[in-house]
């Protein structure tokens, strides 16, 4: 009986870990879906915006440390709002430069932003802790729930509530007249412009909101793990998030949610299999195969089922 | 101070050769290929394998040619690498890009992003993550100018070789595009694909030629990067941003633009190393990119879009 209980506890803890990660990714993928699925903006630097959010909240909420600027000890909720603001501001700057130009330039610019943010995270030691990262990021509710499984479950509830809030807000947004303009611009910019809709401003708004959500997802991740370092925000993260959106089906918020959970499940299962079957000495090389596998998954998905598991909703707002 | 110039031109040669291929695929296949950096990396490692095979089969430890750190085997390995990379990129086109061409440019960009990640990690899987070198020979730099003149200027024979062969390659490519029928067909397709088709140009043949040329140039650039710096699996990822910056700076589709863009990006990187420090080198390419997007988004030699 005691054995069974500890087994259950182990599963509960493992399951809630998995779900917290998947839900924080889902928040980011919803932001990406607003940019790509509803507006057609191709962002290759998602990891950079996530990093901006994670670092902003981490720097603002950690207690003071001797060798680093920051450590302002802000409340976590304020840190999360600041994370959204900072990532949104990054999106505003990038969008202002690149959104007036042809599609590919946005992709290249966002790629450059992610590379540059990675450089700053690694080298601006006084601000970001350099390669050692930021430690002791406060875990909200911990004074209340302790450190074990109850806290993990509590954080899961918090993350799921946040995810639900973001989902509902986005669903309302894309069904609003504003959302219809976004799709109109994506499908035929000239026609939308002839109706007096200025494409650039709508695109910029969508890009900024999407970026802010990426920052929020990053902050939620940072405060769950309690520690962030530059290698948490490598291009592989961007790629995993894109895989989630493409597998789930872009242009559909439910698809984005589904994709986040399915791909994260696929990723952890592949990692577990490799750890189980590959000898210790070969594991670093096997981890590379895990990435190849997900690269192949995205390619196969694009060729075989380009609309994803769920596909785009054809009509999102009912005629009245 | 003057050393910035030589270092920048050597980095710039690698970037230029890579950027030409990227610019050609950009203008003829009409999408930005995020996998292009990986072609450089694979080319560099193909040459390493060919080199090891020559040594194993021939058993002749060919002595390096006088001032250089390498001998004939490396030149032969470079040719093998160029052919293998061209074959590889044709296979990738057949497997992936060809099937997606009708879905539009952005789908191709996503696919190339996925292919890049898979290719890079496959490289890591096959060769491991430890940096490698073609040769263990040490080289003595030739002083071009004494230290008293602006800090002097030195260059190694290998760097001189890279500069020379880059110049020869670029001029050869220029003549090919200007004079040969296939080259003219490529330029025509780049300017106006519909009209080119009406004129009886087979688009598939032009696409194949573009991939082959881009792949071969990328392999040569990769070997140069391996020769002047080192071989590592992230070689392609690290060069991708400089490549894109060079292409946009020069204007998409312009060979001379890509060369000039590559040299400018190379000079900017080597200037950044001496002014800001080596850790922010990659940001130099980003600064160039943002500047050109703000000031002249069609590039120095670009046609008005």
Short description:
The complex is a heterodimer of chains A (320) and B (305). Chain A has 320 residues and is mainly α. Chain A is built from 13 helices and no strands.
Principal-axis shape of chain A:
globular
Q: How many distinct beta strands of chain B?
A: 2
SSE string of chain A: HHHHHHHHHHHHH
Strand arrangement, largest sheet of chain B?
Answer: 1-2
Task: Tally the beta strands of chain A.
Answer: 0
CA distance, first residue to last residue of chain A: 59 Å
What is the tally of helical segments of chain B? 11
Helix content of chain B: over 70%
Mean pLDDT of chain A: 87
The main sheet of chain B comes to: 2 strands, antiparallel
What's the SSE pattern of chain B? HHHHEEHHHHHHH
Name the helicity range of chain A. over 70%
Oligomer: heterodimer
Description:
The complex is a heterodimer of chains A (320) and B (305). Chain A is mostly helical and 320 residues long. In chain A, 74% of the residues lie in helices and 0% in strands. Chain A has a domain of 216 residues. With 305 residues, chain B is mostly helical. Chain B has one domain. In chain B, strands 1-2 form a two-stranded antiparallel sheet. Classes of the chains: A mainly alpha (320), B mainly alpha (305).
């Amino acid at each position: 009986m005691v054995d069974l209980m500890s087994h259950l506890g182990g599963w509960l803890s493992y399951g809630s870990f998995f779900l917290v990660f998947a839900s924080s990714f889902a928040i980011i993928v919803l932001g990406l879906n607003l940019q790509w699925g509803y507006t057609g903006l191709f962002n290759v630097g998602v990891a950079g915006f996530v990093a901006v959010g994670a670092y902003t909240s981490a720097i603002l909420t950690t207690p003071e440390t001797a060798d680093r600027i920051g450590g302002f000890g802000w409340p976590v909720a304020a840190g999360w709002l600041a994370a959204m603001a900072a990532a949104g501001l990054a999106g505003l700057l990038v969008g202002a430069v690149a959104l007036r130009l042809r599609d590919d330039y946005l992709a290249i610019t966002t790629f450059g932003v992610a590379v540059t943010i990675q450089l700053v995270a690694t080298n601006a030691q006084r601000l970001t802790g350099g390669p050692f990262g930021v430690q002791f990021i406060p875990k909200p509710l911990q004074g209340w729930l302790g450190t074990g499984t109850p806290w993990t479950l509590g954080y899961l509830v918090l993350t799921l509530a946040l995810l639900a809030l973001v989902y509902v807000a986005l669903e309302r947004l894309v069904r609003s007249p504003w959302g219809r303009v976004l799709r109109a611009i994506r499908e035929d910019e000239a026609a939308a412009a002839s109706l007096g809709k200025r494409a650039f401003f709508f695109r910029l708004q969508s890009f900024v909101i999407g970026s802010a959500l990426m920052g929020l997802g990053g902050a939620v991740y940072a405060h769950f793990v309690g520690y962030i370092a530059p290698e948490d925000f490598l291009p592989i993260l961007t790629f995993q998030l894109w895989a989630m959106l493409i597998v789930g089906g872009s242009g559909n918020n439910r698809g984005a949610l589904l994709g986040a959970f399915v791909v994260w499940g696929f990723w952890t299962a592949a990692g577990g299999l490799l750890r189980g079957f590959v000898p210790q000495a070969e594991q670093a090389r096997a981890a590379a195969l895990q990435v190849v596998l997900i690269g192949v998954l995205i390619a196969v998905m694009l060729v075989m089922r380009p609309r994803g598991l769920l596909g785009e909703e054809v009509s999102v707002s009912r005629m009245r | 101070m003057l050393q910035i110039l030589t270092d920048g031109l050597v980095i710039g040669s690698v970037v230029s050769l890579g950027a030409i291929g990227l610019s050609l695929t950009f203008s003829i296949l009409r999408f930005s290929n995020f996998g292009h950096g990986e072609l450089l990396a694979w080319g560099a490692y193909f040459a390493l394998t060919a080199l090891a095979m020559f040594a194993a089969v021939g058993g002749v430890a060919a002595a390096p040619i006088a001032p250089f750190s390498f001998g004939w085997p490396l030149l032969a390995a470079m040719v093998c690498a160029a052919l293998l990379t061209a074959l590889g990129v044709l296979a990738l086109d057949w497997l992936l890009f060809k099937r997606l061409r009708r879905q539009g440019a952005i789908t191709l960009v996503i696919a190339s992003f996925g292919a890049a990640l898979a290719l890079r990690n496959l490289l890591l899987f096959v060769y491991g993550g430890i940096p490698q070198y073609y040769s263990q020979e040490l080289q003595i730099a030739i002083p071009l100018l004494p230290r008293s003149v602006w800090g002097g200027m030195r260059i190694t024979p290998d760097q001189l070789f890279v500069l020379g062969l880059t110049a020869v390659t670029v001029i050869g490519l220029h003549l090919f595009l200007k004079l040969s029928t296939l080259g003219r067909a490529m330029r025509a397709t780049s300017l106006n694909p519909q009209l080119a088709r009406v004129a009886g140009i087979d688009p598939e043949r032009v696409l194949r030629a573009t991939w082959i040329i881009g792949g071969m140039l990328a392999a040569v650039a990769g070997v140069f990067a391996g020769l002047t710096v080192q071989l590592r699996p992230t070689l392609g990822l690290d060069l991708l941003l400089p490549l894109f910056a060079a292409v946009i700076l020069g204007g998409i589709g312009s060979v001379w633009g890509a060369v000039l863009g590559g040299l400018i990006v190379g000079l900017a990187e080597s200037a950044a190393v001496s002014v800001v420090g080596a850790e922010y080198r990659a940001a130099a390419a980003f600064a160039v990119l943002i500047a050109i997007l703000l000031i002249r988004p069609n590039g120095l030699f670009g046609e008005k879009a």
